[in-house]
Amino acid sequence: MIKESIYHRPKNNFAYAYDEKTLHIRLQTKRNDMEQVTLIHGDPYDWSENKWQVHKKDMYLQASDELFDYWLVEISPPYRRLRYGFELTNEEEKIVYTETGFYNVAPSDVKLYFCFPFLNSIDVFQAPEWVKNTVWYQIFPERFANGNTENDPEGTLEWGSVDPSYDNHFGGDFEGVMEHLDYLEDIGITGIYFTPIFKAYSNHKYDTIDYMEIDPQFGDKETFKELIKKCHERGIRVMLDAVFNHSGYYFPQFQDVLKNGKSSQYKDWFHIREFPVQTEPRPNFDSFAFTPHMPKLNTENPEVKQYLLDVTSYWIEEFDIDGWRLDVANEVDHQFWRDFRKKVKTIKSDVYILGEIWHDSMPWLQGDQFDAVMNYPFTLAALDYLATGTITANEFKNQMTKVLCSYPENVNEVAFNLLGSHDTARVLTLCNEDSRKAKLLYVLQFSFKGTPCVYYGDEIGMTGGDDPGCRKCMIWDKSKQDLQLKSFIKKLIHFRKTEAAFGSRGKFRFMESGIETNHLVYSKSYENEVVYVAINPSEKPITVSIPDVYGTYAKNVWTNETITPIKNSIKIELGANDFFIIKAY
Ligand code: ARE
Ligand code: CA
């Protein structure tokens, strides 16, 4: 037994409250090292005849990556307290692992065990329920649709006449979005994420001038109110971008510091390292990525905090928005986010809080800060596997297993799964414009654990490289839209809504990742059904077998064909660059 590989630590992704009654306990062991893992557990105060009363429950192998196996068990301690350890068995030996180390036999002293002190309801990580059923659509407002040329900024170019550059404008606005709500509703979209809409200098609006004003190029507050109302009438939620890490250069408070230096009343609103303030060659104040256009806000300063929390409440109270996406969330202090969450949830308890973090985000997902993060590790791995082919099916499986096992299951259920955004090259471009590859990516995205988001225009096959290439004007001319791709995505969205196991409640499990064939098979189960998904990105047809098929009946949900399992298994021919989605029940 390789003891060095055995790892567990309570109160994070290894031991957490799944809901008000249930704990999940996970253990990591070296891959293929254990035959069986059993949880030894009891209530710390449950003694009888001077003996601590212990019970046992087998854990199941939830997933494996390149190096490790991850075991999981669900348990509902009657008094919500738990002391526990693990009994590990392989053909060589049987040992017991607890907080104090390894033992040949289970120690009788409760003090030596791991401790989950109490399952307090208020501490349970709980994202808003509606998020699980949401299909997001990301809109970069300056490029979605121009509904009113009167608010166009000076120098606005003809819609789509040239490629986007760092500073050109095309006049997109709220009226444009309103005109196309039918379009969004028809595809099945139930949530819109808008990149920033507050008054700012640039075309992307990440350099805020006034957090209490709508940028005049998008419309006014009345129009925005109307837009929200119209969205809500159609069952579409609205999420805004909160750019609280930094302001813009033309934020009046920063301008005051530029003007009055040390004597400015706002000098502590930022992180100025020395006076006079200078921007060249590098700013002598903290900013986003060294750009002088985005001075970092001092969110530790109570005045700044109050100001930003007022902004937060204002847009919820007055406009009834449903979510905040937090820009550069990981560079802002945790204390700020804790207060932010309290504020948001007291005003409207089911507002969704989504952090923009590209890396491991466990510290923000403990229930006291965010409801989810943008799942860029998924984006990157999915694109590497299916778009550029730089990793194999097996590497994809390993990478995603690692990601999935580094979070609680209730966190994974609401992960924000995207294939691209205004910060990345477009999916189709990364697929070398091969829409067969893009379709496989959508199958993966829509069946994966978490909630999907479509970046505007991807659904009709728009192309574009890295920022600013990925911010082209939406194509509205139907003859230039890939309508086939659009109906493909629409069908997937439909399945998410109608097939329970396909949606985010389904329990996800990798089944196969072909070493030679490079194909991937996984399943999702929910209540009385299991959905099996297979993806074959290779140029060769393959045969995929699914052993131990669940239930009695099976059906290919994509083609509606009935399938008859033979001796409990299914064998299916899968063409090159093809997929299947089979439901067994
Ligand atoms: C513009 C140009 C860039 C140029 C930059 C230089 O487009 O090519 O390098 O200027 O100043 C906004 C605009 C951008 C603009 C930027 C700066 O949308 O167009 O760039 O402002 O003016 C990291 C951060 C993450 C951040 C990304 C971009 O962690 O928070 O970088 N994303 C948000 C928004 C952006 C926005 C800003 C932040 C600033 O979504 O749109 O940019 O408000 C790895 C790293 C990540 C890194 C990621 C992407 O994975 O680990 O940390 O994200 O790559 O680079
Ligand atoms: Ca306009």
Automatic annotation (TrEMBL):
InterPro entries: GH, GH13_cat_dom, Glyco_hydro_13_lg-like_dom, Glyco_hydro_b, Ig-like_fold, Malt_amylase-like_C, O16G_dom_2. Residues 138-496 form the Glycosyl hydrolase family 13 catalytic domain. It holds the Pfam family Alpha-amylase_N. The keyword Glycosyltransferase does not apply. The keyword Cell inner membrane does not apply. Keywords: Glycosidase, Hydrolase. SUPFAM superfamilies: (Trans)glycosidases, Glycosyl hydrolase domain. Belongs to the glycosyl hydrolase 13 family. This is Alpha-glycosidase. It comes from Virgibacillus byunsanensis.
